[in-house]
């Protein structure tokens, strides 16, 4: 072959290719893999104790086998498993109710401004505080319990709400009060992001009512439905502190769940193999739910949400009629007042003296004052506030420093496809792993290292427990960035830093969501501190639990401590809720 240029003739002489073709592989730089090293080390805080629990569960005096799992033949354990599965049904029911309430607020726009703050407040408080609140509402004495007083006035006598069978009403009400705001907010964000042209096309074809629901809203909200269902179902299976605080001691055996059964077995001196087997069974139930939901978390090509405040104008939707607005406002006010009422009861009880709160209901004008807050302060509340703030801040800082580069690595770091799937599956399983799977070995290891009661150790445990969820959420946010922009950034000399700068608009809401939720969850935590912490850390929830053990005599002090414990997370979530919802739904929009 000849090439001529500027009068110069070049002749290219080739030769016959011989020999076997040698397959080549693209070189993968090792640098990005280092981004995941801190996450691997932090995950070992959970992975190693989980491995110890699994080995202990299968180790028997004769070697390895299933002998320890004979504990599941115990009637109490079987009863706890049945109750845990019943909680799964409760979670599914809550998802359905939340979806239709979100749909109602979507069809009646005036409902949202009133409803959203009322729903956010219960989600911001801890499950322990929710249990305290509903125990106050359903107190069996008509002179103290609101529901009992109303029922007695209407029907002459009242059942024992916290007695056999009826305690489920109290527990389900408290659980729904806590989680419904989360469900409604995410579904509403998904409905707001449905493109207007799609809605008009469906309407032009005459698809309305239930047909529109099945043809449009439900299919487009399937990714969000998977995320919401996964979160609420896992929370229901892992329920622990709600039963412990809301149900009186004599009835707790009837309300037993697998997590509580494990705790009782460990505190009563049962063999380690049998208690480990209980933890493995609980882990298997929750992990199965997590793996079912992993497909919804893997989706990458989801659109960014349109901000709710600007969407109607941006898409040109017709304004609702005056009648629809009036109905929405009226319904919003009524539902909001009903939903915020338990919080009002809690605050009003806290504003009574301990003696007045123990003798009369929150509506009584006698005994008003701040003495219950003074008693709560004397019980160590102020020290617990400082300790909790330090633990939550440290855990959040460590989590963000490790989760961001790890999420980038999984999304755009060039991992092989199979390795990316494995990493995602591991994080999903870790995200739903119950504390009972690693509490006992981790507590023993912390004690052996001389760190019992250390705030640093507890903060690292919280960071490790929050890392899987943070990586999953941030990975979805990174992956939602346009691939063309990422490819263009990767071609530059800055490489990894350029990618982060390119997609910052995508992941910033998710980053804020991770920070706010991690801080709030650590602040509200009870189970990690209860099962792992030593007395030196004094987390806020443990002080609240200590006061609540004599509930009838200290309801005013407990209510005051619960109010103080709830101020920070409530203010934090109300301030950032719209950004948190955007971050939670980034990468999970239709």
From TrEMBL:
Transmembrane residue ranges: 33-58, 85-106, 118-138, 158-180, 220-240, 276-294, 327-350, 389-411, 417-435, 456-478, 558-580
Principal place of residence: membrane
Keywords: Cell membrane, Membrane, Transmembrane, Transmembrane helix, Transport
Subcellular location: Cell membrane
One cellular component term from this protein's GO annotations in UniProt: plasma membrane
Domain ABC transmembrane type-1: 80-293, 385-576
InterPro entries listed in its UniProt record: MetI-like (IPR000515), MetI-like_sf (IPR035906), UgpAE/MalFG_permease (IPR050809)
Membrane topology category: Multi-pass membrane protein
Listed GO biological process terms: transmembrane transport
Designated name of the protein: ABC transporter permease subunit
Species per Swiss-Prot/TrEMBL record: Kribbella albertanoniae
